[in-house]
Request: fold
Amino acid sequence: MSIKIEKRTKPLTVNPSLTLLYGSRKAGKTTMLGKLAEGLVIDTERGANFITGDIVSVNSLVDLRDLVTTLLDNKENGNEYKYISIDTINKIVEWIEESIVEVHNDNNNDKIAYFGDLAFGKGHGMVREKVNKLIDTFSKLTPHLILIGHNKLASAISDNSTIVDPASLNLTGKLKNMIMAKCDSIGYVFRDGIDDSLQVSFKANNALEAGSRCEHLKGKIIPFEWKNIFK
Reply:
């Protein structure tokens, strides 16, 4: 079987298929989701009560599985959302961690209180596997999946160190790195210190994890407007 080599004269896509937007709580991320036309907001933290649009509140992994079934049915009938936003990925991870503990304790005599108590890092691996599967599942339901997350502030590695642990998504290291590696664009959402306007940075530096594969976002700090992110 021969493999066809494609001579490509332009990119197949311009806009990010998987986007991570993270920042401080109540910075305005959820408010912006309400302004995204043709989008569905999956609200996991009851933060979408003050916005309009197509919104579904989910309170557990069971709710999330039921939602997937509904969205699959809708897609088969030709009704697909152009954008789906998960607000927030942090809460989804929390549910997954709790479910691992619950399932283990239901099936074993040696009870645990924390998923990380499983031997040889098994719990952390299970979390990564389940989160990865969840993201892949929702990515198949929409052309553009947006993950909303809370941030971890930049800080010095130690009191006597000049090395900075950069501001990033507030999740554990390998899990955070896996999610970021999957994303086409990673933006840090913040308020401008001068006029309080909402900005998003796709420009990484020693104190911030961000970036994009998209030419119109790569290395940019831009006003947070959807027309600036999705051309």
